[in-house]
Design the sequence.
């Protein structure tokens, strides 16, 4: 026994000397040996002596992890591959070490990551996979990058740039970290939603060779930063930027080391073509219940808790096909099982479950009762529906007779934002076939009634997700298919006045004899717009017919109104291209929604917007360029929105010409300054407007937009009015 104690003392002393001399490889080896000695001694003793050696083993383990971290931070990236050590041996699903989809085992990995490489977390509750061999459920993604990684390692080069896309929670960030681990490269994650060019340049200056630069939600990257900095960095490996101002300005070029940009996005359609052309695109697929069952089993194993495949499948069916949700459930159910075990066995010792090995030795298994209690406490049913899902479906079924109902109405009724409804609830309900989104709003499907235990209405029986009602009449079908509008040239000026009030005609307005086809030939837009619905209108004029394709319900409804009140002689959609330069984006262009020839043979250009977008500062920039363009040409112009809770329309000019509420304007400025002093983020948000309403009574939201449209020092910098963020220049 004395010999073992002497060995422990010797190993600890040698490890401390090696740490002092920065010989971290030697130190880590000595610490492993010392920890083994301490554990062997703990087995031989009981009582306080045993506790002493267990505590010593624990502290040695902590020191060992610190040494690994120091080793990773001081070593330089090798110029040739180093001799690998064994890969982590913990299996994913409780059996033998996992094989990848091609049948080969995990590649060799260095025990100490070189060159400031990303150090995998050493937490007891870390469930994310660290290497491709552990990453199950995404064989296509693994196949797409395996050869890229192998080739890059053989060439000692950086990986090609990647765009990883898929819905929320599929593991895009985890996938990027896995690539960094496989490449033994440093991993840097940045937030870019508010980044400016100077900040991006500062980040790029710090890049190390082969570093992984990860940008989550890359579609939120400001276009100015992408165009001026990131595109050339990705393609040419260098950036050119200006330092100083005026006569002291000079241009500098920064040569970048080979690096890999990995961008993750849930909305790849919003990425500009230069991104998609400069990077390899990798799509993450939705997980099946069976795959999630394997992930859940492996996660319980990592936590030291047992579960049968049948019980893992029960959990998998309720985790919304999402591994992030699944692992969250695993941790909570595991804790519940541990608490239950401790209660039954009268375990009250602090730290009784302080390590996975300690838990695993107890042989704790998750029971049916624990799983049932967890789902009951959290309101999750056998369909994976949560309380919010059921509330949404009941709202549509009971209050709105099964739909259709608009998302704005639902959001206000449930006191939620549109984003929460669309992303948290609707996406899953649509996937489960319980909800359908039509041009008129949200419709509850037969499966929704069944999930809530309600009788299915006769017209809903046999209905499938995404299909129209089978017994729909021609009148009903016309809401979803091509519509024909017979244009009636109404003589009543009052009806036409509804449209004329919205449009501003400049002093140099002129009448034209040419047709719209002569003035505005058809153009092909260089991008595909992301549409909520497509509606084909067939407008039947006296002399001709016009087919009009509208890509939103707002557009089709307004076009129908203009035609039905006799305001139009003709109309074309998105046939005019207008370039503009905004406060933040250069060399932009857009296609106004309509060019019309009115009943007095005047030309007018009309842009449609959602009500809350009228005050968004980039839209104001667009509108001002539209106004200048039309004033030069002698055309009328308007930016129009449908008002909330009313079947009327309002234009930007109407809001701009309304009296400015100076009290509200002063409140906005003071609140921005107050928030900046208190939190460092000087913004006026939705909750601040609610404070104003509480203090001054109900306030028409149009007054807020009138302030923003007349005071350009105030900028609404958020794209969604329900969560506005107003700042001051």
Sequence:
């Amino acid at each position: 026994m004395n010999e073992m104690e002497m060995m422990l003392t010797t190993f600890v002393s040698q490890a401390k000397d090696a740490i002092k001399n920065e010989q971290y490889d030697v130190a880590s080896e000595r610490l492993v040996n010392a920890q083994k000695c301490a554990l062997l001694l703990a087995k031989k003793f009981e009582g306080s002596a045993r506790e002493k050696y267990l505590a010593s083993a624990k502290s040695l383990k902590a020191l060992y992890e610190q040494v690994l971290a120091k080793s990773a931070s001081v070593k330089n990236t090798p110029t040739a591959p180093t001799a690998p050590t064994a890969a982590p041996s913990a299996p994913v699903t409780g059996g033998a070490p996992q094989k990848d989809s091609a049948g080969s085992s995990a590649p060799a990995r260095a025990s100490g990551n070189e060159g400031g490489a990303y150090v995998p977390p050493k937490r007891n509750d870390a469930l994310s996979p660290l290497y491709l061999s552990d990453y199950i459920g995404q064989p296509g993604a693994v196949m797409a990058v395996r050869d890229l990684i192998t080739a890059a390692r053989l060439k000692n080069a950086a990986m090609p740039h990647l765009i990883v896309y898929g819905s929320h929670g599929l593991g895009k960030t985890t996938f990027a970290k896995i690539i960094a681990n496989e490449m033994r490269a440093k991993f840097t994650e940045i937030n870019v939603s508010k980044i400016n060019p100077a900040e991006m340049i500062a980040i790029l200056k710090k890049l190390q060779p082969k570093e992984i630069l990860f940008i989550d939600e890359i579609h939120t990257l400001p276009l100015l930063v992408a165009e001026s900095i990131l595109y050339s960095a990705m393609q040419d490996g260098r950036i050119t930027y200006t330092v100083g101002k005026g006569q002291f300005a000079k241009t500098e070029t920064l040569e970048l080391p080979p690096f890999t940009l990995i961008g993750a996005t849930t909305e790849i359609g919003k990425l500009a073509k230069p991104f998609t052309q400069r990077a390899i695109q990798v799509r993450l697929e939705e997980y099946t219940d069976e795959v999630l069952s394997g992930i859940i089993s492996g996660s319980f194993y990592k936590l030291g808790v047992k579960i049968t495949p049948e019980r893992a499948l029960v959990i998998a069916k309720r985790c919304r096909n999402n591994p992030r949700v699944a692992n969250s459930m695993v941790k909570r159910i595991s804790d519940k099982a541990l608490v239950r075990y401790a209660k039954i066995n009268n375990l009250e010792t602090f730290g009784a479950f302080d390590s996975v090995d300690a838990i695993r030795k107890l042989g704790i298994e998750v029971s049916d009762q624990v799983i049932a209690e967890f789902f009951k406490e959290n309101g999750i049913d056998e369909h994976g529906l949560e309380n919010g899902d059921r509330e949404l479906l009941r709202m549509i079924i009971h209050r709105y007779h099964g739909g259709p109902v608009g998302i704005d109405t639902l959001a206000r009724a449930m006191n939620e934002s549109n984003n929460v409804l669309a992303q948290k609830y609707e996406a899953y309900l649509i996937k489960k076939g319980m909800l359908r989104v039509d041009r008129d709003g949200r419709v509850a499907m037969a499966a929704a009634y069944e999930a809530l235990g309600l009788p299915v209405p006769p017209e809903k029986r046999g209905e499938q997700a995404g299909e129209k009602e089978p017994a729909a009449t021609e009148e009903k079908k016309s809401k979803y298919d091509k519509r024909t509008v017979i244009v009636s040239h109404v003589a009543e000026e009052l009806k036409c006045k509804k449209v004329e009030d919205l449009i501003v005609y400049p002093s140099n307005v002129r009448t034209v004899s040419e047709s719209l086809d002569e003035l505005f030939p058809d153009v092909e837009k260089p991008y595909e717009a992301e549409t909520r619905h497509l509606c084909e209108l067939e407008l039947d004029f006296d002399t001709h017919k016009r087919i009009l394709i509208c890509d939103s319900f707002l557009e089709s409804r307004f076009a129908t109104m203009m035609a039905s009140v006799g305001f139009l002689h003709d109309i074309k959609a998105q046939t005019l291209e207008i370039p503009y330069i905004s406060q933040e984006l250069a060399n932009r262009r857009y296609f106004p929604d309509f060019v019309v020839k009115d009943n007095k043979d005047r030309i007018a250009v009309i842009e449609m917007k959602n009500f809350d977008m009228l005050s968004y500062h980039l839209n104001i920039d667009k509108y001002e360029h539209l106004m200048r363009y039309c004033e030069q040409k002698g055309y009328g112009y308007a930016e129009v929105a449908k008002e909330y809770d009313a079947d009327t329309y309002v234009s930007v000019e109407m809001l701009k010409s309304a009296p400015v509420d100076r009290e509200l304007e002063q409140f906005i400025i003071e609140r921005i300054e107050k928030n900046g002093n208190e939190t460092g983020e000087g913004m006026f948000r939705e909750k601040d407007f609610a404070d104003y309403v509480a203090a001054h009574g109900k306030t028409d939201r149009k007054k807020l937009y009138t302030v923003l449209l007349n005071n350009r020092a105030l900028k609404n910098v958020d794209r969604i009015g329900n969560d506005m963020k107003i700042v001051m220049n």
Observations:
- The first helix runs from residue 2 to 20.
